[in-house]
Amino acid sequence: MSGDAKKYPFRTLKVSGKRHRVRWDQSMGDLAGNVNHQQLLILISAGMSADEVRETLLHELLHAVCHQQGVDIKEDANRQISIGIFELMRSNPGLADYIFGESDDGSD
Ligand SMILES: [Zn+2]
Question: How many angstroms is it from 98 CA to the middle of ligand 1?
């Protein structure tokens, strides 16, 4: 995997069953990222560190999830929740594997 493919691994991501395109490294002025709910398009700005890119992607995905689920939250709440989830996942390696891993009791 090349450096760019590692930093920008997704061309599309499904949010609540709707495939969103992801355009990386866009020139966007002061914005780190943006999501267009009508076009199902997530834009991530150029010139950020790998961590900033990941945090921005999570932030924009949370906007997309809330929109698709019909939840209206303010920008500040979106920011605080996305930061909290980022720290949660970073502080607990293996948590995502546990939550999304195969069930072992045969039910699903
Ligand atoms: Zn935002």
Answer: 28
Ligand 1 mean position, distance from CA 63 (Å) = 7
Distance (Å) from CA 34 to ligand 1 centroid: 7
pLDDT tens per residue, range 46-93: 989 999 999 999 999 999 999 999 999 999 999 999 999 999 999 999
> Considering the domain boundaries, does residue 107 fall inside one?
no
Is residue 106, in this structure, part of any structural domain at all? no
Identify whether 77 is part of a domain: yes
Q: Please tell me the pTM assigned to this model.
A: 0.88
Q: Which residues pair with 18 in a beta bridge?
A: 15
CA of 71 to the centre of ligand 1 (A): 14
Task: Assign 66 to helix, strand or coil.
Answer: helix
Residue 63 carries which DSSP code?
H
